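Dear colleague,

Following up on Tuesday's group meeting, I ran the structure prediction for the two-component complex that the binding team flagged. I've pasted the input sequences exactly as they went in, so you can double-check that nothing got truncated or mislabelled along the way. The structure tokens for the whole assembly follow below. Feel free to forward this to whoever is handling the docking comparison.

Inputs:
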Amino acid sequence: GQNIDQPTEMTATEGAIVQINCTYQTSGFNGLFWYQQHAGEAPTFLSYNVLDGLEEKGRFSSFLSRSKGYSYLLLKELQMKDSASYLCAVKNTDKLIFGTGTRLQVFP
Amino acid sequence: DTEVTQTPKHLVMGMTNKKSLKCEQHMGHRAMYWYKQKAKKPPELMFVYSYEKLSINESVPSRFSPECPNSSLLNLHLHALQPEDSALYLCASSLSPGGWNQPQHFGDGTRLSIL
């Protein structure tokens, strides 16, 4: 079976740091992607990890531990526009399997 | 705006109608995908086309029929849909199907309502 779990909802304050966790159990693994999706819009690619460790891209960083089946997305210096759903997705050969998604709300 | 273009943006159809959703990309991508997304849920994979050939069908009912006329276009033909098929249908593309670090690029989707 395929299980990719994330917290359903999170809240944070503008300017703060938030960490969104993702745990996975999948039959195969070819990498882990993070996407951002604003309501009514397309998912947009944020980051990718295939090896253990931290990948940093501006205000966003993503971490992967393959042995633990665990990843997180770190968002720094939160802005109001960061209010969105964040989707963790595991690539398994040609397939991208999405996690349950985390709705993040940023307050002033 | 995204580099994957989907039309129409909205579609309302009856259960006996036949309609098609269209998807186009000009990034030279050779893998294209259809997803279904219900409200407050993640996208669910329906079909994968690899070099214009259907490589994955996730046990999708036959009332959904995909077609890939060429490397830039992907269609989804709809016939005799059910109310539970109402959802956002997303098209995506990536450079090649098995590429390790190649993200999928999504279109804005077609919001489909079945009456």
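Chain A has a mean pLDDT of 94.

Cheers,
M.
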